[in-house]
Design a protein that fits this description.
about 350 residues; alpha+beta; DNA polymerase, domain 1; Beta Polymerase, domain 2; 3-stranded antiparallel beta sheet; about 45% helix; DNA-binding
DNA sequence: GTTT
DNA sequence: TTTGACG
DNA sequence: AAACCGTTCAAA
């Protein structure tokens, strides 16, 4: 991502507001399904703010101007003004009171969502990380419904990792590890194709985990998964099923995920698992407007249920009169408008 | 919460 | 069978 | 007022 020039100070308010709205979104996610759309709304506003290249301040106190921003309506506009004027947002301050704010960052971790955090809080009366660590050490988790060995392990891991700090790896490292893994997988009997997907394929500066898409005939899937989780560089198996598996690699404790699909579904799967999330949502939105639906297996006509594309990414983009979009550009901004 |  | 998590 | 992406899969 290009360094946003030297305007970091000028865009200070944008950054701060984006961060606050993101946290508000987390709060609403925590509050549950009733608030899920409010959570999405704040997330949208947060992203708009962080993608802006002009300081929000130039809109002054003009609610109508602010309202023109995507995802910013009357209410959020008011909160932007409130923040610029007072440096605080009352609604946010109140929200922080009614949720275990210190636990919300756990939701950033793979395998832990709002519901898990909510359950922890309700069942254990924990409000801080230390509370939670204490409870875990007392072995209180196993009494909670839905908390089996797997989940407890990831939680313990998270709490340890979080002390060290949640580490995404630099792109270069991810590419090295990922490509090496792909070369291993490619050689496995039955594998047709293997590719690096996820944020590493998009060349994000930092990468959270390694995502690998494999195509193979169904009869070979189990065998491939079995081999994958037994690879020498695998330190620990987090999950292993019929079509996908998650492992921790010895090197850097990096998480690696593998997903297997039919060769026909390669494009759709690659597209889906390459993201970004925002890009996928926009593409699906566009597809829906045109009477299609996209999933990780292909593109389908909503009415006839006929499969229209999915073998290649190019084919999917072409179906919607779009040029092939380089993974690097799949940011969920305006890359779909141009086509 | 915002958008249609 | 339900549900949380995912890009 | 109603929609807001869309699905499967693993884990419990």
């Amino acid at each position: 991502m290009p360094q946003v020039l030297s305007s970091t100070t000028i865009l200070q308010h944008n950054k701060e507001l984006a961060h606050i709205f993101r946290q508000m979104s987390d709060c609403y996610k925590y509050l549950g399904p009733d608030e899920r759309f409010r959570a999405i709304a704040y997330d949208t506003a947060s992203k708009t703010l962080s993608n802006m290249t002009e300081p929000i301040d130039i809109y002054g106190h003009d609610i109508k101007k602010l309202d023109e921003l995507k995802g910013v309506g009357e209410r959020i506009a008011g909160k932007i003004i409130e923040y610029i004027d007072t440096g605080r947002i009352q609604t946010f301050e109140k929200l922080k009171q009614q949720v275990p704010f210190a636990l919300l960052e756990l939701m950033d971790v793979e395998g832990i969502g709002p519901a898990t955090v909510r359950t922890l809080h309700d069942a254990l009366q924990v409000n801080t990380r230390d509370d939670l660590i204490h409870a875990v050490e007392q072995g209180k988790l196993s009494a909670i419904k839905g908390f089996g060995e797997k989940k407890i392990n990831t939680l313990m891991k998270v709490l340890k990792l979080d002390k060290q700090e949640n580490k995404r790896m630099p792109l270069q490292l991810a590419e090295r590890i990922g490509n090496e893994l792909v070369r291993f997988v490619e050689k496995m009997p039955g594998v047709v194709q293997a590719s690096l997907a996820g944020s590493a394929r998009r060349k994000k500066e930092t990468v959270g985990d390694i995502d690998i898409i494999v195509t193979a005939e169904r009869r070979n899937w189990k065998k491939i998964i079995r081999r994958f989780v037994q690879l020498p560089q695998v330190k620990k198996v987090l999950a292993s099923g019929e079509t996908k598996a998650s492992v921790i690699l010895t090197e850097n404790d990096v998480q690696a995920d593998i997903r297997i699909v039919h060769p026909d579904e390669y494009g759709a799967a690659l597209l889906y698992f390459t993201g970004s999330k925002e890009h996928n949502i926009q593409l699906r939105s566009m597809a829906k407007r045109k009477g299609c639906k996209i999933n990780e297996y292909g593109v389908y006509d909503v009415h006839t249920n006929k499969r229209l594309a999915g073998e290649t990414e190019e084919g999917i983009y072409r179906l919607f009169n779009l040029p092939y979009i380089d993974p690097v550009k799949r940011l969920g901004k305006d890359e779909l408008q141009a086509g």
